[in-house]
Design goal:
Blueprint lengths: L6 E5 L2 E6 L1 H10 L7 E3 L8 E2 L20 H9 L11
Antiparallel strand pairs: 1-2, 1-3, 3-4
């Protein structure tokens, strides 16, 4: 964890950290923190900010163009067996 990746987040009893940006993202996913939870790291100086206002430095790809499907999804669709009725399974 590099220095820019040392994050702290506010709780009712104080703060927790340091944790990584990935850990913050996982806490969001679990519901442990929300987008309004205050976070801080050294890049913010003396200010704590809500997660919704922070770039945690985690890149994610842009949305796919409308109506397109990646090659992996097409291959998965071809390889996924189709079942006409549930009774065929038993």
């Amino acid at each position: 964890m590099n220095l820019d990746d040392h994050w702290y987040y506010a709780t009712d009893s104080g703060h927790v950290g340091p944790v990584s940006a990935i850990a913050i993202q996982e806490l969001l996913h679990k519901g442990t923190v929300t987008k309004s939870t205050l976070v801080w790291n050294s890049r913010l100086g003396q200010s704590w900010k809500p997660i919704r206002d922070i770039d945690l430095g985690l890149s994610k790809p842009p949305p796919l163009p409308r109506g397109s499907m990646g090659a992996g999804a097409k291959a998965a669709r071809r390889l996924t067996p189709r079942c006409r009725s549930r009774s065929a399974l038993f």
